[in-house]
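Team,

Forwarding the record for the chain on the shared tracking sheet. I've put the sequence and predicted structure together so nobody has to dig through attachments.
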Amino acid sequence: MRVWARLLVCVSLCGVVVAPAAAVVADTIDGLFNGVGPVAGGSSVDLTVVGRGGVPSTGVGSVALNVTVTNPVVAGFVTVWPAGVARPNASNLNFVAGLTVPNMVIVPVGSGGKVSMFASSTVDVIVDVLGWFAPAGFAGLTPARLMDTRVDSPTVDGVSAGAGVVAGLTSVDLSVVGRGGVPSAGVGSVALNVTVANPNLPGFVTVWPAGVPRPNASNLNFVAGQTVPNMVIVPVGASGKVSMFASSTTDVIVDVLGWFEPSGFAGLTPARLMDTRAGSSTVDGAFAAGGLVKGPTSVDLTVVGRGGVPPTGVGSVALNVTVTNPFVAGFVTVWPAGGVRPNASNLNFVGGQTVPNMVLVPVGVDGRISLFVSSPVDVVVDVLGFVPAGGGFAGLSPARLMDTRPAPPALPGTNFALPVGAIGPSGIAFDGTNIWTANYNTNNVSRINAATGVGFNFALPAGASRPFGIVFDGTNIWTTNFNSNDVSRIDAATGVGTNFALPAGATNPQGITFDGSNIWTTNFGTRSVSRINAATGVGTDFALPVGVGSSRPQGITFDGANIWTTNRTNASVTRINPATGAGTIIALPTGANNVLGIVSDGTNIWTTNSVSKSVSRINLATGAGTNFALPEGAIGPDGIVFDGTNVWTTNSGSHNVSRINPTSGEATNFALPAGATEPHAIVFDGTNIWTANQSSSNVTKLSR
């Protein structure tokens, strides 16, 4: 994967700053444009942007927004433009049914201090403001189409129209000055919205100034058949052109949003400032190959004095931030170092997804910016340029101006903070009296009295690293330890623990279950399961069937007769004979995507499908399956449990839970109490539902 940047402050498809907490649903800065219901297809809405969220009432030329669409029923697009003028032939976001897509937008303020938004199909819309430009700081335009390779597709002046796909591994030069309102002279950089459509293979697109070598970076990353938009700020190159490289054959659409004078934005050849992936490099060797950011946690990144950014005189930096290799759903927030983390996000992702977004963020203390990661993920950051201090852009702490989604109903619930020193609960279990959590970030477990909420921490035995899953065997608590390739057995009464290494060759254990005699783990790194005798700790490894291919096993459960695993990326489950280890693959119904959690209700197996926002029901006897879509507002279903009557899921991307009738598939969302964010694991204590909330480091008890 290659990465580079976008423009202002976004980080995930130039995403809408999506609030990370329960407040993410229908919660604006001032209560306006809040929970009003989806924008109807074929209609427009006008949104007041001045005098709100830190934007002054006067003296504003353009605003930088993060716009996100969610819960679309059919494919469509959204266009944003200044209120009071005709809607242009352009788009800012393109989406398909069920997909959440954010993108950053710079748009001039129109009549009444408003911007207009058109949705071609019915969809919920979320808008966060990132900052604003004085009239002289950025010359915002009504968006104009400069390029559209699709057959019979027009541009503003007929140039670069309908020329056919950009062939893979080739570059094209696009004239950007003297077109669409951009003057022929005096232009330093242009703000573009670049969209790829109809790609034949996975790939990326890089945009850079014409006349210089192509940088080791990318602006958009995509898979076959996907439509992906991203905002780009790029210096104008030789002959008033920019260059675009496509790694695989695709259509490309380019709309111009505005332009900067040379003094207004200092565009750079993109340079890598951070890449946590193993074996990676950066422009100066700093912040390279540090390994997954073990969310929930924050890191500070030095951005001045690196990659062409001067050490002084910098107001804001334009970055392209990309996440890759996430295990579970989550989000990233970017803000100036030294400030309080805002209730917002720049990128939202699900397990296995690679997501880029552009960010324009003010530089904080010591020339740094802060990045909060809610769950473990690799992070790549490229710098695209900077706005000089006093250069006309007023960066803000992101604030939500619009959220059309209705708030889900709430169940009676209580949050209990984990004891001090426990961070990032990723797994949850019940021992008959107490709730236990595996705390990924702090290498310990917490025991919480289910009646009082009082908790204690117990350190894992020396050598155990990154506890992920947790289960109770009737006497002891067991954890899978992702980094140390072992399991820990903890006496539930005393907290005393012992480590047992997995069989040779088994790596990165995640899911865990108990079959009455043995502990079973899914091994993400080796596509296998391990059976460990609960009394002796002796283990045996079993490879998953060949048909699992490159997919990674994650969730695991026992149905009373067989072990079942989810195979995350090939939409299937594996049924394993616990005596022999022999496995059979069962495909999930068409449409199930990114399979994570799994549970048995005694008659059926149920899975959570994170990307498709659904659950699948598979009959234990016949293998016949049915998908059930979760309600609108349920994003990133992850953990799953059966309470004897209903199936429940945690939705880590929307910070709520869903209750599903196992017969009809009818489902209802319920909000978690304020302060509970990113629920991952879930357990039933016989009376109440409990969730482990990874980014807020607490647990929630919900009365059914």
